[in-house]
Amino acid sequence: MFDFQYYTPTKVVFGKNTESRVAELIKEFGGTKVLIHYGGGSVVRSGLLQRVTDCLDAAGISFVTLGGAVPNPHLGLVYEGIELCKKEGVDFLLGVGGGSAIDSAKAIGYGVANEGDVWDFYDYKRKATGCLPLGVILTIAATGSEMSDSSVITKEEGLVKRGYSSDYCRPKFAIMNPELTMTLPDYQTACGCTDIMMHTMERYFTNGGNMDITDALAEGLLRTVKDNALILCKDPKNYEARAEVMWAGSLAHNGLTGCGNDGGDWMTHKLEHELGGLYDVAHGAGLAAIWGSWARYVYKDCLPRFKKFAINVMGVEDKGTDEEIALRGIEAMEDFYRSINMPTNLRELGIEATDEDLVLMAKKCAIGVGGEMGSAKVLNEEAMLAIYRASM
Ligand code: NZQ
Ligand code: ZN
After folding, report:
1. pLDDT for the residue numbered 40
2. What range defines the domain where residue 191 resides?
């Protein structure tokens, strides 16, 4: 068991109609001039943005708005947001939407609170010393950005997708109304469930450290999301299932399911970030497409955990050799992906990559992780390429 630090300063306000408390929460955290940042327009179509601006108007809080954060959010809009905040004297950010709008807001927050080019942080050149305070109204259960310390941005030039993590960007509050996720396309709901599970799986498949309470929480979370993802496939308006998945999304990525171990593997995410950067695919679908190939490449080096996962999460019978059980667990996970219409390889994801593309992604991925990375198994560029090739 490793020593650990667990820091989750976000005030969570969860349940029906909780967005009506947005003005009160902004005031509680000292916001007087707000930038409302959102995505491609789902919050306009659903009427949520109007309800939020009405609420701020009624409370006498002044604000400016900036929409347009795309999935795999772009650095260009971040720069625009930073300029707008400086010009308008913004002292509080409100991200309304999914991980993309929230991450873009976090990046704007870094850019306002620090001198110089904000990309430096994502390019690992220097560390931020602060971030503008941020609140969130979540509309898709997926990334956990509403409580996480990370922000993932894509630089258009070179299509470089990178994450930067620090406690400074952890949101002050997160408003989570499961009803707001009911307008999601089924595909995005499934992508979200995949991402949530993967955040815990990344922490679970490790060779460093062990804590039974952490494993029990992780396995319970994974079973809960799996069961409720299947319910949502048939009954997308099921409030209870939406709520289970939404809260799981936050717990999966706020650090809880990694306490006592070495921090996790994270290579499926790193491999996916290259897919997201180059082909602009939905993050969750990219993870599903790569996971099976990653798992088959590494499972022998992390056998006890793959066996435990197979039995305790996927319900595989404890019969046969450890390797057989582990492989049946991987197959069961892929069957689950198929049952929620997620891809299990790059072709199903809609990518016809050339070998040249795969070589380029492996190279960029290796650079992004500083040469090699992983806990279930340490992967270098050659191993990354082998996994990309196996996922075609
Ligand atoms: O842009 P709008 O119009 O809002 O539409 C979005 C977008 O098309 C739509 N959507 C969201 N809520 C909706 C809705 N449509 C209808 N009704 C609603 N209630 O769904 C689409 C996807 O939204 P997006 O914000 O891109 O999804 P997600 O939350 O999955 O975020 C993905 C991004 O977050 C990064 C990913 O790499 C990707 O760039 N990640 C961020 C992390 C973090 N900050 O901790 C960790 C993750 O591992 C991940 O890397
Ligand atoms: Zn993720």
Report:
1. 95
2. 184-390
